Amino acid sequence: MRSSLSLLLRLLAPSLLPLAVLGASLYMYAAPAASRRAPLIALAVAGVASLCAVLVLARRLSARVARLADFSTAVARGEHPPALLPEDHSLIGQVETQLVTMANGLREQLSAAREEKDKLEAVLRGMVEGVLVVDRAGTIRLCNQRAEELFGLAAHEPLIGRKLIAVSRDPDLHDLVRDCAEAAAVQPAIREITFDGGREHLQVTATAIAEPDLEPRLFILVFHDVTRLKRLEAMRRDFVANVSHELRTPLTAIRGYSETLLSGALDDPDSARRFLSIIERHAERLGRLVEDLLTLSDLELGHTDLERRAVPVAAMVASALEVFRSRAGQAGITLREEIAPALPPLDADPDRIQQVLVNLVDNALKYTPQGGAVTVRARPVPAAHLPQTLTEPIRGEYVAIVIEDTGSGIPPADLPRLTERFYRVDKARSRELGGTGLGLAIVKYIVQAHGGALRIESEVNRGTRVLVYLPTAIDPGPR
Questions:
Q1: Tens of pLDDT, residues 7-46
Q2: CATH 3.30.450.20 fits 309-471, yes or no
Q3: How far is CA 366 from CA 361, 370, 406, 424, 429, in A?
Q4: Which of 130, 191, 196, 397 could serve as 146's disulfide partner, Cβ 3.0–4.6 Å?
């Protein structure tokens, strides 16, 4: 207020003072002598009037300047400024108009910047690839959630602001950033690195961000997880190799004995019968292998339709065990069944569940020595006791069917791979017993197609337990 009044007085004083002096001089010249004592009074009245006018103008000017200060302060803080309406076309009015225009422009630019930031954050959150932005000093400037997951950091340990060397000491990663920084042209560089002792494979693409001075200061690192692709590629190679090996063995035997028969052994009835029985056995093995491959392919591709209905568990178990009664008796192995009373029926395809039970009981008999026992149990399972692999259980109750033997057991290192195609713990014995190496893989896919889960527990020289969890046909309703 005082500064505004002082400014106004400086502006108006040079014009007001001459007017007052001129008015007083004219008055003293024209007025009679008796009344010449009034000039001082007139001059005082004129001064007071001028001062009042100056005070009014100063108050208005001070209020407008205060509004300008409040307006500019709010704009500088990024807050919504108070209303500012230009009152006239004076210099201050022009300043008010320009400030309003500038504030509207800044507001639009800030809104556009926030919108772009929100879009960028949404894109980064939705990316399955990890993204890091690193400067030349190796400091992380920007990252997304996937990058934090890849580098195994907790939510309270953000990557932003940390050094890349503190996050990962992988030499290939740092060599990639160094090569990208030293490259003359701004072009992406790609390299594959491994994490976690080679169990995770990442394809990293490093791109420099061009600057006006043509010297990149920031680098974008995109981490694409190719672990699953690597595993699938390895599985494909193993599958081709295993199938070729499994097919070659019976085909070689069939061809060899056929050539022997054609070479003259056909004239010897005893040798011909023995060779033909060997050819028949290998042809049956080849047929089982092809049938299992087709079944597994249909299950994986979802081409097998399940004819689900209510299936009694006791009847299914009894039917599966009946297939092996004679064989178990000849091998000196005891077959037992322990079915919980009042067990609810399964919601399943009876043919497929029968295939699961036959495969599992057959495996148990193959690896159980004489004098051992194979037991099939069935009991209801509360939802809280379902295995963690059953991530999305079907609403309702479950039944656990357990096939337990007293055989040689399985080493712990082999348990995670038992359901892989063609994986065998004892390859020589498995082929000798007629196995194709696909039985447990077929069991796994059938159980998963029913919305169930499979778990295998074993101890060496103590036996093996295979637990199959299947949904029942009873729906308890909303919980």
A1: 444 444 554 545 455 455 545 555 555 454 555 566 666 6
A2: no
A3: 9, 10, 11, 13, 9
A4: 130
**Domain-wise residue ranges, the chain:** 2-111, 128-225, 246-301, 309-471
CATH of 128-225, one of 3.40.50.970, 3.90.226.10, 3.40.50.10490, 3.30.450.20: 3.30.450.20
Identify whether the C-beta of residue 313 lies closer than 8 Å to the C-beta of residue 356. no
CATH hierarchy code of domain 246-301:
1.10.287.130
